[in-house]
Structures are given as structure tokens and as C-alpha cells.
Amino acid sequence: IMTILLVFHFGTFANFKHYYLHFIKVHLHSEFPSAVSYNRFVELESRVFFKLMLFLKLYAFGRCTGISFVDSTMIPVCHNLRRYANKVFKGIATNGKGTMGWCHGFKLHFVCNDRGEFITFCLTGANVDDRNPKVWQVPAKELYGKLFADKGYISPKLFESLFDDGIHLVTGIKANRKNRLMPLWDTIMLRKRYIIECINDMLKNTGKLVHSRHRSINN
Fold first, then answer.
1. Which of 49, 101, 140, 177 has its CA 20 to 30 A from that of 21?
2. How confident is the model at residue 66 (pLDDT cuts 50, 70, 90)?
3. Residues 199, 146 share a domain
4. What does the pLDDT read at residue 157?
5. Left if phi > 0, otherwise alpha if psi is -120 to 50, otherwise beta: which for 201?
């Protein structure tokens, strides 16, 4: 089950039902001779949730190198006009506003190193601020050195809290703020944030992180 799910997210298929019925059951029949029906497979998906999380933790995460990048992205579960009719995530998904506008769903906060490897992540409601202390409870234990972020992470309290944990938060300067000197190295590394932007793009376009086939919370 885990293999089938992972191949789908790293493949070029946009429709999981078509992928399972016409690729797994036909072209990969020799590799999966006892593949169950599509409806049964959807029922079995929830059984591997914790195993996938364990696999992610053991084999998919990298280590902090002292240079890290942080970003967040919205994960909508439905169109904004249908947010009041959504029953699958009723009471769990929230309304939040990001750089691309309003969203009903969740927000993924993630950190990567200078090699483009995931270090850690946190999934919250869409209305949770990036500077919320609860968001940083887990990342603060995994990071050290310099952490580069966009202007949405500007917060004196967050800077002091992370600095006490051995993390130097580096952000840009807002246009309406007083200008301040910044080391040339920090200025150059802020421009390297395209690394995490590329990861964000791959998660949504290649990994199909945002989709519309939510039939239950587990799936």
C-alpha cells in the first residue's frame, strides 16, 4: 500500500483512480498480483498512515547543517465558495489568508537545509500565524545556526525566543521599517530562499499535495 501511494505522488498521474485501475492493475500486475479492488484499497489506505509518518522520519528527512530556510504554504481542502458545505473537514479546517488570498484548509510550515533536504514540518489550521510559538516548539529542537525566512516572520519575540535556543533568525526588511545594516553573507543567503520555494512548487505540482479527492480525514 505504501509503495503504491509513494509511486503515485512521485509520478505524473493526476487522478488516483485512473492510476490504480489502469497502471497498477494493468501495467504493474506482475509486481502486485494480489492487488485488491479500488474501493477496497481506498478503505485500506488509512492503515498505513503512521507507517508512512515513520518512513518519512527515518528515510526522508535530512539533518540541520547550520543553514536553514523556513516557509509556509496553504493547503486548501475545497474551493472558498464551498467551504460552508464541506463535511469531511468540518470543525478541523479553518479559514486563513495567505499571500495568494483566502483559503479554507490547513497550513504547512516546513524547514529545509541548504541542500534542499526536509528537516522538519508542522501542519496547522490555515488561520495560524507563522510566528505562533506553538508552531516553533518542534522545529526549535531540530535547528541550530542561521535560519533564513521571508518578511512574514518578522517578530522581536520570535527572534529572541529562537536566539535563546541557538538559532539566529534572519529576515528581510519591510519597506516601511527603518533600514539597518546586514552582513553581506546574510543578504546573499536570503536570495537563496528559492531553494525552499522550489520544494514548495514540487510538493504542490509534482507531489500533488493539493487535490480534491478528500473522502475522509484519514485519506
1. 49
2. very high
3. yes
4. 92
5. alpha
Q: Which helix (H) or strand (E) holds 201?
A: helix 194-205
Tell whether the model's pLDDT for residue 138 goes beyond 80: yes
Q: Kindly provide the b/e burial profile for residues 2-24, where b requires at least 16 CB atoms within 10 angstroms of the residue's own CB.
A: eebeeebeeeeeeebeebbeebb
What mean pLDDT value characterizes the chain? 86
Domain boundary among 41, 60, 79: 60
- Which residues on adjacent β-strands are paired with residue 68? 113, 147
Quote helix, strand, coil % in the chain, to nearest 5: 40, 20, 40
Please list the residues that pair with 121 across neighbouring strands: 110
- My answer on whether 29 and 125 are in the same domain is no
Residue-by-residue DSSP string for 48-101:
GHHHHHHHIIIII-----SEEEEEEEEEESS-GGGTTT--TTTTT-EEEEETTE
Look at residue 190 and tell me whether its pLDDT is greater than 70: yes
* 8 shares a domain with 116: no
Q: How many domains are there within the chain?
A: 2
End-to-end CA distance of the chain: 13
In this structure, the strands spanning 67-76 and 101-113 are antiparallel
- Would the pTM count as exceeding 0.85? no
What is the rounded average pLDDT of the residues 89-102?
83
pLDDT (0 to 100) of residue 111: 93
- Domain around 161: 67-205
